TrEMBL record:
ATP binds at residues 388-390, 412-417, 501, 516. The modification N6-acetyllysine is found at residue 611. GO terms for cellular component: cytosol. Belongs to the ATP-dependent AMP-binding enzyme family. Keywords: Acetylation, ATP-binding, Ligase, Magnesium, Metal-binding, Nucleotide-binding. It comes from Kitasatospora camelliae. This is Acetyl-coenzyme A synthetase. Its cofactor is Mg(2+).
Amino acid sequence: MSNESLANLLREERRFAPPAGLAASANVSGAAYAAASGDRLAFWAEQARRLSWAVEPTETLDWSRAPFARWFADGTLNVAYNCVDRHVEAGHGERVAIHFEGEPGDGRSITYAELKDEVSRAANALLALGVGKGDRVAVYLPMIPEAVVAMLACARIGATHSVVFGGFSADAVASRIQDADAKLVITADGGWRRGKPSALKPAIDEALERCPGVERVLVVRRTGQDVAFTEGRDVWWHELVEQQSAEHAPVAHEAEHPLFILYTSGTTGKPKGILHTSGGYLTQAAYTHHAVFDLKPETDVYWCTADIGWVTGHSYIVYGPLANGATQVIYEGTPDTPHQGRFWEIVQKYGVSILYTAPTAIRTFMKWGDDIPAKFDLSSLRVLGSVGEPINPEAWVWYREHIGGSRCPIVDTWWQTETGAIMISPLPGVTETKPGSAQRPLPGIAATVVDDEAREVPNGAGGYLVLTEPWPSMLRTVWGDDQRYLDTYWSRFEGRYFAGDGAKKDEDGDIWLLGRVDDVMLVSGHNISTTEVESALVGHPAVAEAAVVGAADATTGQAIVAFVILRGTATDRGEALVEDLRAHVGRTLGPIAKPKRVLVVNELPKTRSGKIMRRLLRDVAENREIGDVTTLADSSVMNLIQAQLPSAS
Ligand code: ATP
Ligand code: MG
């Protein structure tokens, strides 16, 4: 950003008080903010007591080598024991940990006692394969219970896992395996996707031609499809794991022992191996899951729809919920298989009470139509969450009304792979929510918005989101590259963590995320947020999804070009609609934000985690050759978009 701070254009006046019943019995009350701001470190030391430590830490934070943090460094614990065994020891062995719903409709429910046996067997199997503490293990699996078991088995023996999303190509897997120098790969024959078995093992076979450090491959049989087997290297999970003893005594590891490496999705630049460690990470994952979702482990059924390959799957499927003894749903497949009501059928079937999903999914459901969720009984729901991108106010309101029955609070949770856990979010029993705003740093977290010169902006102004104090689940470094850690996150503003996101503070001081700094548009000297223009477009009844970019323009520097997907109900799709949309944005945000061009398309380019890749749309808008499309979920989308557009203008 340059010239001036991010403009503050969008006005959103709707407010929603927390439901009285929920507020009365919420896990966390408003008093937590004051308690935590009084003595932040004492607050986190107290949260660390949610965990069972083998050796209780006496030191909370060592910041003497800032920005390299050490939390609870003299404590020791076993992360898997915390997520599994201790619940069994506390008498909750019969509680369901995982309701697994396979895409073809198969499934099973796994209790905490069964999970303990399964994780112990897998831990013994890893040891039998020669994996030990400190070794790296790559995990490339579909969304099946074995993915959770594999991660916990690694944690149990102190091996560091690196989960690679099952949709990534052999190239992407190979570079991640090489970077982490993994010794073992855990994969499957395939997983079910859109009604068909989708192979995984061939990508591993191809990747391993370039990964001589990998000694063994452990293969789960999920789909039963044919796979090539390399003698001496490959071994079936059901043969090796099932024959192991269900007894495995967990040993304690240091709080700062590396728990996992997770590569950021690569929306921007070469993937970075984000390193997370044990005690601080688990403390914040557990606390935030308890506070933000108001989890009541005895009665709630929780469902996070993320993939285990993303950080959301790590912190809010595996570590947070299991540390808290939650009962959760894990679903293998896509939301439209075999029909577009699959998610709502699952909510109804298991009585899901807490649902955590992404704006991209919500906008897709809006596009499919209100009548689909209306066919199912969603009355079990009580808290709804959103993560991954800014949620447009109109999508937020739709989610509240059509999924939440106008009674469930929505928690819009801002965080990153790097932060490890939720940082900015409403609390469901405390916050009067505002559609589109993540609002306030959680108790114990310090964040603000600054301008180019690192000055905190006043309420009502925009700039860069920064985190001003270290937090327990912060990344410890970029794997093998301390310098990149310093350069990427700590060099833009002295002593502050630079998140790379634009944000503004409203008149109450609440935070609104405005998209990535790299995507901000500069029009006639004004910095304009992609998020605000997209939200204005999604606020029009004909629009389901929108992506805007700034394209080079001779007069204004950049001109706003909008790509929109229309709702199923939109009848007019021609020039008149385009004019109407431009006028609508002008009325909502002011003339400066009016798109110069509006292009109606059927698809938008998205990463595999569902985020819009604006850089590719910028290529289209500027009539350039399309850049690297390897991280796209569907690389044919760009051809489709180009074919649909009026030829170069
Ligand atoms: P890469 O860093 O490789 O480009 P990524 O940033 O998409 O990938 P993640 O760590 O999964 O990978 O996503 C974090 C980013 O997602 C945040 O920096 C922010 O841009 C966006 N984000 C996540 N949650 C929210 C939210 N609730 N509101 C606004 N933006 C969000
Ligand atoms: Mg990022």
